[in-house]
Amino acid sequence: MGKALDNTNSEIDEYLRSQEQKGMLRFITCGSVDDGKSTLIGRLLWDSKMLFEDQIATLASESKRVGTQGGNLDYALLLDGLQAEREQGITIDVAYRFFATDKRKFIVADTPGHEQYTRNMVTGASTADLAVILIDARKGILTQTMRHSFLVSLLGIKNVILAVNKMDLVDYDNHVFNKIVQEYNEFAAELDFNAVTPIPLSALAGDNIIAHSENMRWYQGPTLLSHLEDVQVDEDLEDKPFRLPVQWVNRPNLDFRGFSGTVASGSIHIGDGIVEPASGQTSTVKDIVTFDGSQETAYAGQAITITLNDEIDISRGDTLCALQDRPVTADQFEAKLVWMSSEELLPGRNYILKMGANTSTARVSALKYKINVNTLEHTAAKTLALNEIGVCNFALDKAVSFDAYGENRKTGSFILIDRFTNETVGAGVIDFALRRAENIHWQSVDIDKKARAEQKSQQPAVLWFTGLSGSGKSTIANQVEKKLHIMGKHTYLLDGDNVRHGLNKDLGFTDADRVENIRRVGETAKLFADAGLITLVSFISPFRSERQMARNLMEEREFLEVFVDTPLEICEERDIKGLYAKARAGEIKNFTGIDSAYETPENAEIIIEGGKLSVEAAADVIIETLKEKGII
Questions:
Q1: pLDDT digits (tens, 9 = 90+) for 70-81
Q2: Quick check: 357 pLDDT over 60?
Q3: 473 lies in the same domain as 549
């Protein structure tokens, strides 16, 4: 009995070792709506006998209840797990499935085809080695087919299977298949694919999934599964330079300080030299600790903790790198950006840029062009809408370390997050650092802000007046400046209309132009504060994000937001310039309060009830506040 048990255990150990030694292929299925992506993967799991008895029973039950195949097995239900997916017969979220054959292990991401769920497709493609792009043989190449193909190429996937599905619905006609392949190859010639392997199949009927179809004897190429088992993917992360993004500084006690993360690429050995490239600090590896204990070497994909022989300052978000092969460190770069939000991209607006565990504040300093996914041509643009793709220059608030995405997918990608909603609004891949950033340095000066302010016997400050057109903010700001002038204070008033005659005369009134308008004024106000002045800024500045951006430019307690809270109906009654009447008549577009939103301040230092206080009384309130805060 004992010997039999030993043999059984030995067989189990041998089986587990054989499984560990198998290679892993991550692939994605993508394409347009109803091309059969979920059905394809469901059929692949079914035919490869990768389902448990309870899954088979559930599939049979669900097929009768909500299936789309008239009571027959609906293989798509193996992937469409959300209630909304089953009710509508579509894929919404990314569904991941693991399966294995004698040759290889697989993780497949089934992604949605609807345009509004493109962000989910990007998520699935970001970790894939190969893409299966499905085309409905009846419909041919569609816009979403081209969009997904471009995104697959953009995200660095080099190997593509062109799965021409539903061949049973075109009578297995090889001419239909050949025409689609020819058209796709013409389109894909401009994409960066190493290989496109076309396979005609019927996911529902199982043709060319596991075995060659008797219905398509004219096809002599590989079946879907045989190609997935044999295809060679190029990327070998272990051959790339060592990169360890630090996710956690591990300090369980005073005697241990390690840096934890997953090795993004390359390998590391005890005794190797490492560097944190942003700071330039160097050391050597003292120990490599894993869940199973210490080891001599760690490779790409392993979760490890590194201890060093020197006490150097490293934090979450930093990157440990090979000493002799460092990444680029810069605060400006060019990147391709996929926009994922229904709210358009506004160049100049600050977003949170997240690259691994590193977060920084970033803005698009220039939108160079957007890419038409149908023709791949470059077109001029001021902004990006949902699912549009653009090439942009980014400016960050600090230098970060990265590789070009083409060199390392793990360390050359990022996401953008809206600072107020925390929504992921974009995903990007870095092309290269902007070298001009290396030519710009701060010039030291002997007379600083403090000296300039002391000369004027005042504290520098920025009073940021915001409110609707006609709220009275410019009139009140003018009165405040007059009072300060009489008191002998040094001031300057930046008024929205006046600035648009010069500095910002090139800007219109779209949301993108409004953001750039406030960015420029914020930078100007910062310079005036540096000169020791009390600067009064009177702009509608309708967006909280840009008012916060201006606040962030100043030192603490140097920025005071003055909200002139005048009801819209009173502003319209005043309407000295007749702008509201023209906006109501449709003669003026993007007018704040009418067809463009005004975001009310949430934490203004001073609130003036514009419909109740006189100009004189409002100015006195502001002057008293300045005295209380020690500015005058």
A1: 555 554 555 544
A2: yes
A3: yes
Which one of 32, 401, 474, 541 is the catalytic residue?
Answer: 541
Whether residue 162 is found in the same domain as residue 277: no
Task: For residue 541, indicate whether it is catalytic.
Answer: yes
What is the C-alpha separation between 76 and 36, in angstroms, rounded? 8
- Verify that 165 and 215 share a domain, yes or no: yes
CATH at 423: 2.40.30.10
CA gap 623, 483 in Å, rounded: 8
Strands (E), 47-191: 95-100, 104-110, 130-136, 159-165
Confidence of residue 630 (pLDDT cuts 50, 70, 90): confident
Element (H, E) at 338: strand 328-339
pLDDT number for residue 617: 95
Q: What is the mean pLDDT of residues 174-190?
A: 94
Strand blocks (E) in 496-585: 534-538, 559-564
Residue 91: pLDDT band by 50, 70, 90 thresholds? Answer: very low
SS (H, E, C) 351-362: EEEEECCEEEEE
Q: Using a CB cutoff of 8 Å and minimum separation of 24, what contacts does 440-443 make? A: none
pLDDT of residue 57: 56
Domain that holds residue 265: 237-322
Neighbours of 599 (CB within 10 A): 15
Q: Which residues contact 445 (CB under 8 A, 6 or more apart)?
A: none
DSSP state of 207: B
Q: How far is C-alpha 354 from the chain's CA centre?
A: 8
Bridge partner list, 562 = 465, 606
Q: What is the CA radius of gyration of the chain?
A: 31
Confidence of residue 55 (pLDDT cuts 50, 70, 90): low
